[in-house]
Amino acid sequence: MSGIDGLDLGTFGIYTFDFEHQPAGRIRESVQELEERGWRALWFPEVGRREALTLAGHLLAATERLHVVNGIAQIWARDAAAAQAGAALLADAHPGRHILGLGYGGRPRPGVKPLAAMAAYLDEMDALDAPAPKHPVRRLLAAYGPRMLALARDRTDGAHTYHVSVAHTAEAREILGPDSFLGVEHAVLLETDPDTARATAREHLRPYLDTPYNLAKFRRLGYAEDELTDGGSDRLVDDLVFWGEPDAVAARLRAHVQAGADHVAVQVIGTEPGASSLPAWRLLGDALL
């Protein structure tokens, strides 16, 4: 397996939506505690409430060692020149600590092919007439299918996958080969009651079972049509959301590493907007770090 040259994200990191809803001061306190507890990497998405590179800068400024990964910055939120300029400044200000994860994301765009759009975006970034930065911009692509994974392999430092099974991690590693980074997000819930856990997991998965590209992804993962209705089958839910005691969840997360992941970004679900996942992060840190 491979890492990203010069960067050590650790085997496990945190993926969170929490900071979309919290004030800056609370975010600062949270990430400082995570750094003190030994977490090396924090991943966050861009869903519209917070601009991706601004939030990355805030997280980096609040910490000293933590790696901050956009997972992902939407290519439709800024043009390629703005993405390159912003990421280059973060790389210069915080050498070796920022990774620009790029993804298609956002609302559907009829007639636009994600692979072609992503390749064109990378072309624009690479063609910018500017001096080579002293500290390189590290890039990942949100990727699931074979062609996007191949693009990630050929044009960036690697791939970031989201809501996939352990079997997919093994397939992604084959496509990426031994030299590209593979970071895998996985949702978890520290709940031992099966009915409660699956109800919370189904609420989390509901938006993903209502979009054509996610449904296509799940079909390619091998789930039958009847497993994608009524909130998803128990098998689908249990594969995509690991639940139980911290040690049991940790054991299941390690299966991604055994399948070829360099790093697993752990997303705690079930946290209300504005609340904090810190209690669960503390328990997971004890089990994983």
Automatic annotation (TrEMBL):
Residues 22-108 form the Luciferase-like domain. It comes from the Bacteria. Gene3D superfamilies: Luciferase-like domain. The keyword Magnesium does not apply. SUPFAM superfamilies: Bacterial luciferase-like. Keywords: Oxidoreductase. The keyword Membrane does not apply. PANTHER family: 5,10-METHYLENETETRAHYDROMETHANOPTERIN REDUCTASE (PTHR43244:SF1), PTHR43244. This is LLM class F420-dependent oxidoreductase. It comes from Streptomyces pharetrae CZA14.
